[in-house]
Every structure is written in structure tokens, then in C-alpha cells.
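User: I've been trying to design a sequence by hand for this structure and keep getting stuck. Would you show me what you'd pick, starting by listing the structure so we're on the same page?

Assistant: Good idea, let's start from the same input. This is the structure you sent:
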């Protein structure tokens, strides 16, 4: 009997994208009227888009595989095909055993049913008998940590509660193949750690196959023994997890430290190092809005791991009554003590109601000599941050 759990051959997925042609109000109204009365309109251009193309690989039973790549690389589309949520356009794939998937918040849940009812529903969909589900029920509820709400309809759950229950169901109902997307990022840090431990146990101790998609490359390296790097909808590299992560990091193209944005409010954003500080500044036009915009950010290391983030509210800065017409919003970060290297900056700008701009890893900055290397030369295995540490030796 073959030990191949997942076999994918020449898989492809094509989408048809419609682009509305630019027109004035009169033409736009006429187009909509034609559609309303059933007449054809040529105002939409149709474009083919291949989210996946010529994807081939095999995953053996008991392997934990991390699928990595930039946003838009095709990771989630691939998981939806393997989870039988969507059909491929070309190629074929085979799965050996029961598959349990956690791709989006609330995946597989009936919102009108209670948590208890959804556990039984999911188990039945997986082909389990009621007695099998009942045997696992208490363990599922205990792991999720939502005992008080197990008889509450899922539609009243927060997103974090849905993720807790969904992962617990997916991991405990004895699937031969467990597929988990970035959705775990919704949960709190403690629960994420708990989930990674459970996936590690499922793979190494129980011989189940795990497919894990995440931008947390440290988690991928810890959990997975194999990696698949997708780029522009195609397989760019397959190898051990560490080799794949190295290939991914070396092949990344760094964004600039300043971007110009064609937007009615946000004109440009830049990041720069000033001695041992980091400056993030957004140039804005705000003539038509009453509320001053907020600038929020996250700093990530070169592997894409989030180090820290902030916004004015978290820093206790009240700008709600400040007059704002045209100018810039900035934050100056001190005492960072980052080691030499390239760092990503993700930026969000909004007024608390509307998001004007959101740029994931839109900027980069090359940190150099932020800390004094006289007594601690570059050491790569200690992480990117070097905090002050006070030492004592006390004689007993």
C-alpha cells in the first residue's frame, strides 16, 4: 500500500475577471438599464487569471508541510481545492483518508446551530459515528475553552471563539489529513501556541498528515519538516522546511523605504533610521474629512515575523480635536535596539471609521548600527532585538 497521503498532478485554477470600462454617469446609467431589461452590454472586459498553474507534488503520510509565499501566490486557492471547496480547472489530485480543514473563521459551521450541535454536524460530515463523536466531545470542548457557551448558537460567538471551536473540532475528530490556513492568527497568542502544539502532536505522535499555511515563518519552521514555496501561482521550490524558508527569504524583493500613493487623502509614506531611532511619516491631504487620520503600523523582521506595532491610541495620544487640513502624521520610535538587517513595515491609515490605506509589508528599512556592536558582534541566532540586560552575581 502506498504511503502517499496527497498527490497533486498538473493542477491549475483559472478565474474570469470582469473589468468595468470607465465612463461618465450617463453611459454608466445606460449600461445598467440595458442589463436590467436583458440587453447585452459591451462595457465589461473579461480577463483570464490563473491563480494556480502546473502545480505538482506529493505529500507522504505523517508529513507536516508548510506552504509559504507572498500574498496572492495561490496558497489559499490550493487549500480550497484540496479541501474540495472549489474545483480545479486543470489537473487532478488524490487524497488518502478523511480530510479536516480550517480555512476561514466559521468554516463548516451552521450559524443557527449551537456549538454542541456543530460538533456533531462536523463529525457526521467527516463520516464518524455518533458514538465516536461522543467519545471525543469532552476533549474537544475542553481544548476550545468555551464550555460556558457550548449550547449558545454559533452566530453569537466572537471570531476568536469560532476559531477556538473550529480548530478543536478539526484537530480532535481523528482526520488522516489536517489542513489549516492563516485563520489561527485571529486567536490569542496563548491559543495559537496551544494549536501549534496540537498540530505537532497530531503529526509526530499520531502519524497524521498536516498542511499548514502561515506568514509566521518561525511557526512553519518549528512545526513542519517539509516546505512548498509558491510564487505567482506556481511551485517555486520544494524541500525541507529550513531549506524552503531560506529560499523564500533569499528570493524576496524588498520594497522601497518610501512609496507614493495615488489617493485623495494619502499622498506618500516613508520610513527612515535617524541615529538609534526609527521615523515613520505619512503625508496627507484631508480637506474633505472632519476627523484627523490615525497612523498605525507593524514592524516585521526579514522572515515576516511581526515584532511589534502601535498607533496613537495605544500610546495615549489624543488627536481627535486637532484641526487638520494638509500636512503629515509621524511617529518616532526610540529604544528599539534592533540588530543590523532589513525590516518590513506594514502601515494602516484611517479615521477610526474608514480605512484610507492599508499596506502589508509596503515599506522596508535597512537598520545599521542602531546598537553598539563593540561588545556584542552580530549574532544571528539570538533574534533581531537586543534589549538592555542587567547582570548580578550574588555570593550565597
Amino acid at each position: 500500500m502506498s504511503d502517499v497521503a496527497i498527490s497533486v498532478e498538473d493542477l491549475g485554477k483559472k478565474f474570469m475577471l470582469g473589468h468595468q470600462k470607465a465612463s461618465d454617469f450617463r453611459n454608466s446609467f445606460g449600461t445598467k438599464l440595458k442589463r436590467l431589461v436583458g440587453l447585452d452590454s459591451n462595457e465589461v472586459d473579461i480577463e483570464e487569471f490563473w491563480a494556480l498553474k502546473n502545480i505538482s507534488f506529493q505529500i507522504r503520510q505523517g508529513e507536516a508541510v508548510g506552504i509559504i509565499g507572498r500574498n496572492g501566490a495561490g496558497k489559499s486557492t490550493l487549500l480550497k481545492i484540496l479541501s474540495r471547496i472549489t474545483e480545479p480547472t486543470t489537473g487532478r489530485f488524490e487524497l488518502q483518508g478523511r480530510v479536516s480543514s480550517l480555512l476561514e473563521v466559521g468554516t463548516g459551521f451552521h450559524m443557527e446551530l449551537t456549538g454542541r450541535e456543530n460538533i456533531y454536524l462536523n463529525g457526521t460530515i467527516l463520516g464518524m459515528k455518533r458514538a465516536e463523536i461522543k467519545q471525543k466531545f469532552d476533549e474537544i470542548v475542553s481544548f476550545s475553552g468555551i464550555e460556558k457557551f457550548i449550547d449558545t448558537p454559533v452566530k453569537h460567538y466572537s471570531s476568536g471563539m469560532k476559531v477556538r471551536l473550529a480548530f478543536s473540532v478539526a484537530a480532535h475528530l481523528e482526520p488522516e489529513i489536517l489542513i489549516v490556513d492563516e485563520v489561527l492568527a485571529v486567536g490569542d497568542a496563548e491559543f495559537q501556541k496551544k494549536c501549534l502544539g496540537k498540530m505537532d502532536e497530531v503529526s509526530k505522535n499520531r502519524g497524521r498528515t498536516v498542511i499548514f499555511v502561515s506568514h509566521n515563518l518561525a511557526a512553519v519552521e518549528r512545526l513542519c519538516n517539509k516546505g512548498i514555496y509558491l510564487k505567482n501561482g506556481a511551485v517555486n521550490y520544494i524541500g525541507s522546511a529550513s531549506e524552503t524558508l531560506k529560499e523564500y527569504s533569499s528570493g524576496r524583493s524588498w520594497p522601497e523605504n518610501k512609496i507614493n500613493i495615488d489617493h485623495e487623502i494619502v499622498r506618500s509614506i516613508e520610513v527612515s533610521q535617524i541615529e538609534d531611532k526609527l521615523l515613520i511619516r505619512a503625508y496627507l491631504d484631508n480637506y474633505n474629512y472632519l476627523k484627523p487620520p490615525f497612523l498605525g503600523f507593524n514592524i516585521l523582521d526579514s522572515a515576516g515575523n511581526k515584532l511589534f506595532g502601535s498607533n496613537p491610541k495605544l500610546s495615549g495620544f489624543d488627536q481627535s480635536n486637532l484641526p487638520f487640513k494638509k500636512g503629515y502624521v509621524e511617529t518616532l520610535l526610540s529604544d528599539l535596539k534592533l540588530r543590523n538587517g532589513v525590516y518590513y513595515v506594514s502601515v494602516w491609515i484611517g479615521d477610526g471609521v474608514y480605512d484610507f490605506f492599508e499596506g502589508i509589508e509596503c515599506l522596508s528599512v535597512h537598520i545599521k548600527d542602531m546598537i553598539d556592536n563593540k561588545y556584542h558582534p552580530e549574532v544571528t541566532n539570538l533574534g533581531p532585538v537586543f534589549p538592555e540586560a542587567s547582570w548580578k552575581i550574588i555570593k550565597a
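That's my pick for every position. To get oriented when you compare it with your attempt: Residues 258-382 form a domain with the Immunoglobulin-like fold (CATH 2.60.40.10). Helices lie at 25-36, 75-82, 115-125, 130-144, 159-172, 189-204, 217-223, 241-250.
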